[in-house]
Design brief:
This protein is an alpha+beta fold. Helix content is 19%, strand content 37%. The protein is built from three helices and ten strands. Strand 3 and strand 4 form a beta hairpin. Helix 2 packs parallel to helix 3. It is elongated. 21% of the residues are buried.
Length: 160
């Protein structure tokens, strides 16, 4: 993921939002980006940053500076062809579990991710199914932090 200029920004349409438990200062450090100050129509002072994900999708991070509280960050996806994968990729980059989200739009259509384990006898077991890839990745990191013979991977769960 990298920060992009206004010139590189492709104006798409607004897709969806989630509220993150981070303020803009935390994300500047975590992502090595710089937020720009601007005035949001009707809402007053705000901070924003344009980003491009490795997949090429663009997103915009906004933080409204209401009552000097910069601890709620709105992630908005603007793209001509938005998809759930961009949201999931962003959550993974931030290493955010969905339980930390303050809100997510009911319009977000989730994919289901399955965490699978293979034991040393080549038997496969479903560890769990998750609506965010970042949740499956977090669980996999927990399970693989100690040396053992099991192999773990994440795959799309077939729905329907």
């Amino acid at each position: 993921m990298k920060q992009i200029s206004e010139k590189e920004w492709v104006r798409g349409y607004y897709y969806d939002s989630i509220l993150l438990p981070y303020g803009w200062k935390t994300l500047e450090e975590k992502l090595n980006i710089a937020f720009e100050s601007y005035m949001e129509d009707g809402l007053g002072p705000a901070k924003g940053a344009r980003l491009a994900l490795n997949s090429g999708k663009q997103l915009y991070l906004k933080c409204f500076l209401l009552d000097n509280n910069d601890q709620t960050l709105v992630f908005s996806l603007f793209d001509p062809n938005p998809d759930y994968e961009a949201l999931s990729e962003f959550m993974s980059v931030l290493d955010v579990e969905s339980r930390l989200l303050l809100w997510e739009s009911p319009l977000i259509q989730h994919q289901t991710y399955r965490l699978v384990r293979q034991d040393d006898n080549s038997n496969e077991f479903i560890v769990g199914e998750y609506k965010w890839k970042s949740d499956a990745e977090f669980k996999m990191r927990q399970l693989t932090q100690h040396i053992h013979k099991q192999i773990y991977w994440i795959e799309y769960a077939e729905v329907g």
